[in-house]
Amino acid sequence: MIDEGRPLFLQIAEAIEDSIVDGTLAEDAQAPSTNELAAFYRINPATAAKGVAMLTDKGVLVKRRGIGMFVAVGARDILLRERRTAFADRFIDPLLAEARTLGLGEDDLAALLRERAALAPTTARTEGNRA
Amino acid sequence: MTAVIEVSNLAKRYREKLALDNVSLSIQPDTIYGLLGRNGAGKTTLMSILTAQNFATSGDVRVFGENPYENAHVLSRVCFVRESQKYPDDAAPIHALRAARLFFPNWDQQLADRLADEFQLPMKRRIKKLSRGQLSAVGVIIGLASRAEVTFFDEPYLGLDAVARQIFYDRLLEDYVEHPRTIILSSHLIDEVANLIERVIVIDDGRILLDEDTDAVRGRASTVVGDAAAVDAWTAGREILHREALGRVASATVLGRLTPEDRAGIVDAGLDLAPVSLQQLIVRLTQRSGDDAPAASPLAESHGEPLSLTKEVR
Amino acid sequence: MSRILNVVRLQLVNKQTWVWIPLIVLGSALALSIVIYAMIPSDGPKYGGAGQAPLWYFFALGLQALTLTFPFSQALSVTRREFFLGTLLTAIGGALLLTAMFLLGGWIEDVTHGWGVNGYVFRLPWVWESGPLAAALTYFTLALFLFLVGFTGATIFKRAGALAIAVVGVGVGAVLVGVVFVITRFELWGQVGAGLAGLGALGLALWGLVAIAVLAGISYLVLRRAIP
């Protein structure tokens, strides 16, 4: 589950983000504590803390003094927006570039999209589907 | 934060060999360190000197700000479990643990009992008659239950099977979370401990090769695999840690973070990208440092600083 | 101080070494002697050296007190000074106990006229001539001295290796041979004999204490640089 090449704290942060986006971790709910994360992933608590700190900086998690870390209200929106932008950067831009070289215009692309969408089975969002 | 251990220009010379060469480092409190390196690199020697069990030839060692030699005030807060620890002949684990309880002020008997149970340690059997794994378990239990402010583990899990090792890592992390302290774990099973350690110190042939945060080191190298000519073309001008080839296929490990352009270039060249684990990175680094004569290596230490892994100019 | 006492407890983890074996050595030597005395037809008092046996064992004890326990004491973060003092204390305790048994044995022999067979292992006239206290001191000093010989030897071996202890052993032997040679050459045995007799067991014991102090000093200094 843990990928070798990328900083651990990033992966921990992403795992939390994933659970917020797919709804398993609700807004305003209490987020797992640093120690819980450390125990669950079997990692150093300092690493878990870094991941949590990053999410706090982003505004995804918020600290309530004396109680703990909570998912910020509006966190899901922040993340969806962020991921949609990343999605566009990663998939749409290359798609457009390739389409241009093949001589496909925007309308052609839209038609192709609709055609393929009709064929493809609707799959539920699968967790861990990070290519 | 004031360092818990300060080492300056430490050297240890045996008749024919320089076991430690100009070692300087600074250990911060409440952190888990990994002291990594090959067998014979100097890990045990270093830890012995830090705990006054062995003596430096030159250089300075301060633990809690003082010289640890014959210093009960310092040593009672330190625990060093050796890889091949000798125990009194007649002793059984129960005696060894009882003895440890006498000397470590923070000793937790409940933890010790629980660990003995989990490791399935026969408490009344003579230590001489224990298996290698059970012997290691005794050392591990002493190390963990001592709750010493600075605890060294010198590959104490040799002989422990994978299940027992996982128990050790889990209990270590658990107890560290409840009772933060400074832990220095030496190992050559790097990938197993990679997620536990906050900071990596790599020692090779008595010299410190690396002394950095684990996360900073992760992802600092990549392996490209594919057609040999394409690999060589892409890796030209880069820091190559290791290259091997089989027929027309080559695999090269390069140092340096990859930019998006780099990644695109790799895909365009029809090459595959594989991540490099901490263990692989350290293995390659130590292999390379063994291959080159120190003066010839472009990354040789300058002014006694540890090797920098970054391509960027500091 | 409590850490030093804890070293005593650490040493005593080896119950066999410190308690059972010395008792067995003493007991069996005594039993054998009595049996042999019973078999000897002579009526006069018979004296034997079985009382020495546990003393020589103290030499072995000195060796083991270092080799068995020093490495483990280092793992428990005990300083060399604490280990030395604690071990010495244990040896003194052991020697005191042995001496007490020696005194007891002597008293029993006195009362039973040599275990009923007129055989004496403890109450040797030469040792007891200055009284029981002097006898006790002699026995105690011998035990502690032998312990320290073993301990010092083991410490030198630990610090400097087999060659070093061999050299030291040969050196000490050479010195002794040299002394004997000189005494023989100059026919001084008569004077030596008279001197020793004049000294008596008590005097010898007091010199023994000097030797003990010297050995203790040497072993401590060597131990300070020993590596477990």
Write the layout of secondary structure elements.
The complex is a heterotrimer of chains A (131), B (314) and C (228).
Chain A: H1 8-21, H2 34-41, H3 45-58, E1 61-64, E2 68-71, H4 75-102, H5 106-119
Antiparallel strand pairs in A: 1-2
Helix pairs in contact in A: 1-3, 2-3
Chain B: E1 5-13, E2 18-27, E3 32-36, H1 43-50, E4 58-63, H2 72-75, E5 78-81, H3 93-103, H4 109-118, H5 132-145, E6 150-154, H6 162-178, E7 182-187, H7 190-193, E8 199-204, E9 207-213, H8 214-217, E10 221-227, H9 228-235, E11 239-246, E12 249-255, H10 260-268, E13 272-275, H11 278-291
Parallel strand pairs in B: 3-7, 3-8, 5-6, 6-7
Antiparallel strand pairs in B: 1-2, 1-4, 8-9, 10-12, 10-13, 11-12
Helix pairs in contact in B: 4-5
Chain C: H1 2-11, H2 15-39, E1 46-47, H3 53-67, H4 70-75, H5 80-111, H6 114-118, E2 119-120, H7 125-128, H8 132-185, H9 189-223
Parallel strand pairs in C: 1-2
Helix pairs in contact in C: 1-5, 2-3, 3-5, 3-8, 5-8, 8-9
What is the arithmetic mean of pLDDT of chain B? 87
- Count of helical stretches of chain B: 11
CATH architecture of the largest domain in chain B: 3-Layer(aba) Sandwich
Structural class category of chain B: alpha/beta
**Sheet with most strands of chain B:** 6 strands, mixed
Main interface: chain pair and counts: B-C, 34 and 27 residues
Report the total helices of chain A.
Answer: 5
Sheet with the most strands of chain A? Answer: 2 strands, antiparallel
CATH class of the largest domain in chain A: Mainly Alpha
Categorize the overall geometry of chain A: elongated
End-to-end separation of chain B in angstroms reads 24 Å
Shape of chain B: globular
Q: Describe the strand arrangement of the main beta sheet of chain B, using strand numbers.
A: 5-6-7-3-8-9
The top-level CATH class of the largest domain in chain B is Alpha Beta
Low-confidence stretches of chain B: 293-314
Radius of gyration of chain A: 19 Å
How many beta-strand segments of chain B?
13
Kindly report the oligomeric state of this protein.
heterotrimer
CATH superfamily of the largest domain in chain B: P-loop containing nucleotide triphosphate hydrolases
Count all strands of chain A and give the number: 2
